[in-house]
Amino acid sequence: MRTQVAIIGAGPSGLLLGQLLYKAGIDAVIVERQSPDYVLGRIRAGVLEQVSIDLLDKAGVGQRMHAEGLPHGGIELLFKGARHRIDLEGLTGGKHVMVYGQTEVTRDLMEARSAAGLTTIYQAGDVTLHDFDGAQPKVRYTKDGQTHEIACDFIAGCDGYHGVSRASVPESALRTYEKVYPFGWLGVLADVPPVSHELIYANTGRGFALCSMRSAKRSRYYVQVPMEEKVENWSDAAFWAELRNRLDPEAAERLVTGPSLEKSIAPLRSFVAEPMRFGRLFLAGDAAHIVPPTGAKGLNLAASDVGYLSTAFAEYYGEKSPVGIDTYSDRCLRRVWKAERFSWWFTSLMHRFPETGEFGQKIQEAELDYLVQSKAASTALAENYVGLPLV
Ligand code: FAD
Ligand code: DHB
User: Fold this and answer.
1) Helix/strand/coil percent split, the chain, to 5
2) What InterPro entries does this protein map onto (predicted)?
3) d(Cα 105, Cα 42) in Å, to the nearest integer?
4) Does residue 297 carry a catalytic annotation?
């Protein structure tokens, strides 16, 4: 088989890139290790920035998002037992975010891809990348006991943190930066109305909590747990009791509980691999960088990477210009590091760190108090939360 761009991974970055390339008249094939149902079963991000909304519109898949997504013009910060609203819209000149789950984004992209008759190879085994330092890269995989080869002009590594693309780059060509946090997020998805119509980020002596949602009838909640915690140790009743304990009295009273549809623990990590291009291989999304989820930046960074990459390929094929592909890594990394900084800062502000004790808690409360009182500090939070502009 031959194509212009071979995309590894059918997560949000691979699928969105595929759709943007299709709109630009560029041929692409996606190779994915898992089945479509497995990919759709992963419950992850929930908040889209304007940049991501615009890219989904450009890809022609924004219809259901605009109909069913929930625009949010504010978030609430809960500390010392009281909630304080950050007016995202007022502080950023009218910008907002959209609450629309990664599962739905992925579903919309999958449906658009199959409606357009584009090729995705699911359940591909032993995916390997070849010759991306030369002019004729290749991707090989096995399916139904046979080995297949895709010859291509470029490879897009959209296969997440544990994928094969970054692992195929010689170690000497890669510099990595990493921070692992000593806790994770225990998340529950449940068909119960959200406790509040806006998201609540809570700093408490018992640890962080987040009240989010997927719709007016479906809630997504998280509580900070120690890194070594096991999900099997958490019954639904234990989860609801812990979440209630981390809310202010009014929210605790309003909290509606119910059976969990999904329950899992996500570890928290900051990670960046530089550069994001090696010859004709380009890394995008979680394959190149991970943020702790506190600022809801992971999916949004994946979207902006593939926004840059699709434009670069369109310039290469359309205007015969290599400028986009030559500047891809630097442009992405400027944005990535700002999101890394914000996610690290918001994580550090909101979580309980075992090593800093009560002093750390007091310092966090003082910073939060300053944050909600100072327009300058609230504006810095709001600008980053709604997403920095593309440069
Ligand atoms: P992925 O979504 O990881 O997709 C990569 C795809 O590549 C997968 O489908 C995988 O099966 C496939 N693949 C892997 N290896 C291979 C291979 N060898 N061959 C072929 N295919 C392969 N972000 C937020 O903003 N908010 C959140 O609340 C949040 N929660 C998260 C919870 C968890 C448990 C995780 C892991 C991430 C979370 N994120 C969150 C981050 C966000 O979901 C990611 O940033 C986003 O999924 C990145 O998309 P991606 O397409 O780059 O990578
Ligand atoms: C969600 C996840 C986040 O990391 C976040 O900051 C906000 C919302 C969510 O899953 O809904």
Assistant:
1) 40, 25, 30
2) FAD-bd (IPR002938), FAD/NAD-bd_sf (IPR036188), HB_mOase (IPR012733), RIFMO-like (IPR050641)
3) 12
4) yes
Closest ligand 2 atom number to CA of residue 102:
10
Q: Residue 273 C-alpha to ligand 1 middle, in angstroms? A: 16
User: Positive or negative CA dihedral for 124, 127, 132, 138?
Assistant: negative
Q: For residue 131, is pLDDT > 90?
A: yes
Per annotation, catalytic residue among 12, 137, 292, 293? 293
Q: What is the CATH number of the domain that holds 34?
A: 3.50.50.60
pLDDT at 177: 98
Q: From CA 250, how far away is CA 195, in angstroms rounded?
A: 10
What was the pLDDT predicted at 362? 96
Q: Is residue 156 part of a domain?
A: yes
SS3 at position 161: coil
| Count of structural domains, the chain | 1
Domain around 283: 5-44+101-177+269-347
Helices and strands of the chain, counted as H and E runs = 13, 20
Q: Is residue 352 part of a domain?
A: no
Residue 128 corresponds to which amino acid? T
245 domain-assigned: no
Residue-wise pLDDT tens digits, 218-273:
999 999 999 999 999 999 999 999 999 999 999 999 999 999 999 999 999 999 99
